[in-house]
Amino acid sequence: MKQATIENANGMRLSAIDYGCAMTELTAPDRDGNYESVILKYGDPEQYLENPIYVGAVVGRIAGRIRNAEIDGVALTPSEAPHHIHGGEEGITARHWDMDVDGQAIVFTYLSPDGEEGYPGNVRFKVMYELTDDDALVVTMTADTDERTWVNLNHHNYFNLGGRPTVHDHVLTLPSDHVARLDDESLPTGELLDVSDTPFDFRDGRPVGAAITSEDEAIVKAGGLDHPFLLKEGTTRLHDPVSGRIMDVETNQPVMVVYTANFLSEETPVTLEGRQKHSAICLEAQAFPDAPNHPDVATSIELNPGELYYSRTVYRFGVE
């Protein structure tokens, strides 16, 4: 396993390994200028070779679930039988990528062979993490194929901007009028729910804890937030009022899946720093989950020869 580290002109630092492109450190200053890592990580680097909860990694070929592990008659690996989740039993997360450092960027490439996890086509993936001198992390992910296939990647950092046991007091602002209704297997039903007058309304900013401790049936069932929000124009913001850290997120993706680490606990079978329930929040920019089964509400995730899948998300750090 190889590791690379980059740093910007201000001292912001990012480290990542070649296995699953997993980030292991991302530092940002608080209002007093103190730099600390704002992402969860494993205590032992070897545990990234298991990584059942996708800490810091790129997830795909398709992030999220595909109902009955099938798209247009193509059978995918039923990794959460009978469904397919996060790219299969291993997916591209459980692969060693080629890794290079180019200035203030780490660049990863991987050729996913035809038939991997049931997916058709030889697909070339490229992922780049870049630190800019205005304290932004730019995550760019691309893919091309030699055969019709499907791609919907996301990046799975677990953020905690203050280093405290939970993110309950983090304030989330999310430009979204609608959240997807999920069934009992956490698959979208195809119905979009208006967030007005619900705990899912983050348009004007809301403490994360106020939402995930609510008695809303969908939140109680999930143990917190684990829901796809349809994005409209605007910036997603996560703010820790104690440290003063702010993370503004802008993306070209249509959906933000918000997950509040609902299944972490002291019994989690990993040595993870900050493994308490609700000790972090994932902001996963991607296309609509199970998109092929919901063409009325989802943009297509089909990728054909001659086309380029392109995902770009910017995480800009500041203080208030």
From TrEMBL:
Segments passing through the bilayer: none
Gene3D superfamilies: 2.70.98.10
Record bears the keyword Isomerase: yes
Keywords in alphabetical order: Carbohydrate metabolism, Isomerase
CDD domains: galactose_mutarotase_like
Lineage: Bacteria, Bacillati, Bacillota, Bacilli, Bacillales
InterPro entries, alphabetized: Aldose_1-epimerase, Aldose_1/G6P_1-epimerase, Gal_mutarotase_sf_dom, Galactose_mutarotase-like, GH-type_carb-bd
Lineage top rank: taxon: Bacteria
Annotated protein name in UniProt: Galactose mutarotase
Pfam families (alphabetical): Aldose_epim (PF01263)
Record-stated family: Belongs to the aldose epimerase family.
Species assigned in the record: Exiguobacterium alkaliphilum
Pathway note: Carbohydrate metabolism; hexose metabolism
